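Troubleshooting: if your tokenizer reports a length mismatch, compare your output against this known-good record of 353 residues.
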Amino acid sequence: MKDMNGYYDFSGQKFGYPLSLSINGFSQNVFTRQSSLELSYVLCGEYEAVTEQFSTIVHKEELILIAPYEMHLLRKRCGKDDGKILTIHIDFDRMPESMTGEVKGQFYSGVFNSQKNPSVYFPLKRKIGELVKMLMDGQSNLLRLNVLMAELVCFSARENISLEELPLQSEYQENYLKAIKYIDEHFKEPLTLQDVADQLSFSLSYTSKLLKKYMGIPFSKYLSYVRVRASLEALLEGKEQIEQIALECGMPNGKAYTKTFRELYGILPSAYRRQFRQNLKYSKDEEGRVMQLDEEQKSLLFHLVEGNRQMVYEDAKLVIWKEQEKFCCQVKEMWRDVTVAANGKIEVFFEET
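Known-good structure output:
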């Protein structure tokens, strides 16, 4: 059963601000799609990431970037229940279009680590660490927060991942995603498994087996999870009663909603709402809100915060950092020659462009 241990949520969106950050040990189990750019950093454990383009395993200290409007799921790997993940959302719907332009097509979903794509991984990891440190210190400099958010967006848009390099989907996976998309678009309606099968021209038995195979749970349970997951924003706003929220998201009543919510998150919706409000409290002197973290969270975040102090140098061609008392260097572009002077100074000569 899931619980709220390890849960933290900073939601600037509560105040109309585009950025939010959360730390939790939940397993998503439900496909979602949102207008925000999503950056998830695995603090511990392993996760399975499934998108419209690929599926893969994301390991500790790896980053997964989810492009806006991409259908995706991020869940703990089977048998790996110790996972904790830090997730940042930057919601472009809360920004004027004059600042962002056309968002679709500007980002590509993918997984980043120190070996495969360091030129994107290290800048993103460093900026995430700076954001965490800022919140941990209770800093309230909105301009600095804006700069960090803009840098995260820019670094995320750098990498164009060739679709040819991504794992190809099988016919069964394609059919599965078609069914998932249809559920995502119609979950507020009195939807049945037969409706999904008819819409996609599948047999009822095939549709049932297909969804059970890839979701691991029956259709009715998955549909309930989708409805509850879609209700979170309304729940956290705190303006409506649980019964009303349940009906608006497609659940039959508040009792069924509460049962499903507890099954999905391991906590009552009313307690979830209270926990969220607690995380939103500001001090009376209106200084920045300090992240209220437990010792486990602080331990998991330590390398992110301290790692920023180990960065030595970075530009468009070169990045140098200190790791375990050693200096590490990553050359981002083609280089012509490297020399080491008698005093230990290293010179890197790049090809002329």
